[in-house]
Amino acid sequence: MALWPVILAKRSLKSTGLSQRLLRHEKIHHRQQIELLWIPFYLWYVLEWLYKWALYKDKNKAYQAISFEREAYEKDWDEGYLGRRRAWSFIRYL
Known about the structure:
The protein contains six helices and two strands. By secondary structure, the protein is mainly alpha-helical.
């Protein structure tokens, strides 16, 4: 989980080391948080999740449908993505 300025992980991940893909995923969230100035990011995240939960009636589907998560999951495999990423790229995933 990315909570600016740190990344929180379960102990089991810490002992084996974070995968580079997971680290990239969380770094994408850090960039999103910076763009929205942290507090608005968290408000938007929660409100979008609540809206999608009401829409899909499923917490996991709602989580997967959040624009921030969609961008991070789609691009976390790409090692150079953060270097090419344009500001507010998550908007494409709304």
